[in-house]
Backbone:
């Protein structure tokens, strides 16, 4: 019994931190731009396939490939999504949602066309290829590192939003856009910044989880679903809510897996989210603010 | 009054023509033999099967065709959508007037094709082949209503009865002899094809677990995983706790790269794993898992071993001239076309569809993976030892056959020894 408890605790922390990394960028877009970003899954595909392109086809090393991929991510987020879609269709929500998801699907299919499963795409980002035993529970070091990355990135983001002037402006925009405009906030510049900030956590996530996660052209859909579930449960656009929801989903997944059977963990998380939504319609931290 | 009589006579004549089949189109007996291939051209397995079909057709045409007639291959993309597949099937049979439709795609497409084919068959006699779809849905139709579905053939022997009566006992003997297994953990994916393995087939065979027990191997853990599952660590933790010395994975469609990667980084990483089929048996998995697949055993037809004189030339030619690797479905599609060719030759042409069906039920032809032919009653292709899928083990970047012994390339090695 104590072993099961230990397994649940360890996997709650590990999975919760990884889910946080998956969902942080989505929550940020929801909180700052007030957009339900259905094209968010693109980030994961670009992280894997652009890196692969630079490594395999352009014959660059791992680090230059990662850096160039980050650049591509930023350009894609700013030019395709922000300038091309969000700015243009900000007032036409249904068009914005439709175009966003179409871009996501197009990128996934393009990746599948260029690099089908037979291409053997992978990201060689294993840092420590070994396992750690904690009280009889075995964990891959790479999972621990991915979890640590999740905690670290979230801590940096929260501190930055709380302690810096730019963070204050972004929070102000998130709380009350007309008031922020009246106070002279450069909203457009902050939106640009938010777009760039939103691609960093999922990109780091993809690099960190690749050694134990399946990489395929359509993986963005399941990762987008995870991000959406966490954001909805936590309260759309609220980072505090995302943190709590990530660990709550991690706890549900771990408990169901170790006490019951792992194939029901997804269903269990959906049921809990539904129940929460019935009693707290806006999620755990319902509110229109980032923090 | 006379007008009414003429009209009535004309209607009776039309009715008789339709019901007696005089109006029914019969297959062309001259000119090129047209065959249709349909599949999801975004899916690697369909693309590989399409290339294999083109290769077989090119080879046959270069060698003079079938009874002097060239084969014309018409390729169509279903985009993986059933309604589109149904429309394409109708187009191939009614407009293009193909003699045979080959569906190189998952079984749901095969079933949709077979149903629409059954409706068209009386008017447009043709043959239907499913060369990728597994499971029992196709051959059960032939078994249950031979008259209606007799035009349908399945080139995939891995059906439940054969799984339980031929493959499983054979594999267990292999693992007992080579790995000395005593306690097994069984993992099934949550799909229709594993249901008979989990539950057995009444009056035919007990479940897979019962077969293990019957062979003296203790089943210490059983579980089912869903197709969308990404995290398998809890399963491996449970298996390690169960004391199993072997993991039998009746899976083919789960996220195998994630599964393999997590096995290699879990408490169960030293327990040998056998995967029934899928991506783990294809060459890209080594790169995809950064070598973490080392030690995994898998049923794979993609290993370079000369099962017949056709095997290696088939693999080389496909890569060299058709720019695709042989993956799941390419061998079966290629072999099916050669089996079909031989049946036409034995039938003396394509004019009598029932004679052609009879010949398909009796034909045997040297194939890439052994001997191609179909069961006379149920129309699935002949199971092992006629048609073979070797068990391979990933050893330092290469797939090595460990069973059947006839094709053995290397001894089994424990995963922990391979990682050294």
Residues:
């Amino acid at each position: 019994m104590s072993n099961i408890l230990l397994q649940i605790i360890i996997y709650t922390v590990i999975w919760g931190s990884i889910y946080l990394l998956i969902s942080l960028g989505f929550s940020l877009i929801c909180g700052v731009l007030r957009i339900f970003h259905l094209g968010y899954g693109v980030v994961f595909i670009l992280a894997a396939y652009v890196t692969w392109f630079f490594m395999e086809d352009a014959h660059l090393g791992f680090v230059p490939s990662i850096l160039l991929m980050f650049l591509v991510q930023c350009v894609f987020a700013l030019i395709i999504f922000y300038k091309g879609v969000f700015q243009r269709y900000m007032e036409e929500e249904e068009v914005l949602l439709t175009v966003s998801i179409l871009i996501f699907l197009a990128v996934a299919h393009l990746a599948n066309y260029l690099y089908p499963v037979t291409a053997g795409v992978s990201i060689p980002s294993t840092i420590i290829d070994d396992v750690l035993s904690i009280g009889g529970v075995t964990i891959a070091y790479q999972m621990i590192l991915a979890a640590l990355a999740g905690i670290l990135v979230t801590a940096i983001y929260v501190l930055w939003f709380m302690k810096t002037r730019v963070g204050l402006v972004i929070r102000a925009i998130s709380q009350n856009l007309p008031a922020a405009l009246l106070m002279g906030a450069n909203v457009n510049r902050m939106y640009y910044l938010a777009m760039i900030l939103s691609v960093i956590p999922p990109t780091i996530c993809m690099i960190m989880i690749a050694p134990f996660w399946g990489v395929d052209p359509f993986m963005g859909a399941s990762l987008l679903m995870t991000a959406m579930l966490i954001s909805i449960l936590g309260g759309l656009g609220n980072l505090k809510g995302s943190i709590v929801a990530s660990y709550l989903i991690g706890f549900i997944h771990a408990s169901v897996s170790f006490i019951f059977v792992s194939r029901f963990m997804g269903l269990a998380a959906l049921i809990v989210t539904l129940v929460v939504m019935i009693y707290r319609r806006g999620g755990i931290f319902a509110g229109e603010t980032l923090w | 009054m006379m007008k009414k009589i003429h009209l009535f006579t004309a209607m009776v004549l039309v009715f008789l023509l339709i019901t007696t089949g005089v109006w029914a189109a019969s297959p062309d007996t001259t000119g090129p033999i047209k065959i249709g291939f349909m599949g999801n051209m975004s899916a690697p397995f369909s693309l590989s099967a399409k290339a294999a079909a083109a290769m077989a057709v090119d080879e046959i045409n270069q060698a003079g065709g079938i009874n002097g007639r060239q084969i014309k291959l018409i390729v169509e993309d279903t985009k993986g959508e059933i309604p589109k597949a149904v429309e394409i099937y109708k187009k191939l049979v009614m407009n293009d007037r193909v003699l045979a439709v080959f569906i190189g795609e998952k079984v749901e497409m095969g079933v949709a094709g077979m149903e629409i084919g059954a409706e068209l068959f009386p008017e447009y006699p043709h043959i239907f082949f499913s060369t990728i779809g597994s499971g029992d849905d196709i051959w059960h139709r032939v078994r249950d209503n031979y008259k209606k579905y007799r035009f349908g053939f399945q080139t995939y022997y891995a059906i439940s009865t054969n799984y339980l009566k031929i493959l499983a006992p054979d594999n267990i003997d292999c693992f007992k002899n080579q790995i000395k297994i005593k306690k097994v953990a069984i993992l099934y994916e949550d799909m229709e094809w594993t249901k008979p393995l989990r539950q057995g087939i009444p009056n035919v065979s007990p479940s897979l677990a019962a077969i293990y027990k019957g062979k003296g191997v203790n089943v210490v853990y059983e579980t089912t995983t869903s197709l969308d599952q990404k995290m398998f660590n809890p399963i491996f933790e449970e298996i390690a706790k169960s004391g199993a010395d072997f993991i039998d994975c009746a899976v083919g469609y789960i996220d195998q790269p994630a599964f393999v990667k997590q096995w290699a980084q879990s408490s169960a990483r030293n327990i040998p794993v056998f995967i029934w089929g899928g991506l783990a048996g294809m060459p890209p998995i080594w790169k995809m898992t950064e070598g973490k697949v080392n030690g995994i055993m898998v049923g794979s037809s993609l290993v370079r071993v000369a099962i017949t004189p056709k095997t290696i030339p088939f693999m080389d030619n496909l890569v060299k001239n058709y720019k695709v690797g042989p993956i799941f479905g390419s061998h079966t599609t290629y072999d099916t076309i050669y089996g079909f060719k031989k049946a036409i030759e034995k039938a003396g042409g394509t004019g009598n569809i029932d004679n052609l069906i009879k010949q398909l039920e009796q034909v045997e032809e040297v194939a890439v993976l052994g001997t191609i032919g179909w069961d006379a009653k149920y129309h699935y292709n002949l199971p092992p030892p006629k048609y073979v899928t070797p068990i391979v083990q990933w050893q330092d970047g290469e797939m090595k056959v460990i069973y059947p012994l006839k094709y053995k390339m290397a001894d089994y090695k424990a995963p922990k020894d391979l990682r050294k």
Remarks:
- Residues 2-126+133-279 of chain A form a domain with the ABC transporter involved in vitamin B12 uptake, BtuC fold (CATH 1.10.3470).
- The radius of gyration of chain A is 19 Å.
- Chain A touches chain B at residues 7, 11, 15, 109, 112-113, 116-122, 124, 126, 129, 131, 137-140, 142-143, 211-216, 222, 253-254, 257-258, 261-263, 265-266 (CB under 8 Å).
- The longest helix of chain A spans residues 2-32.
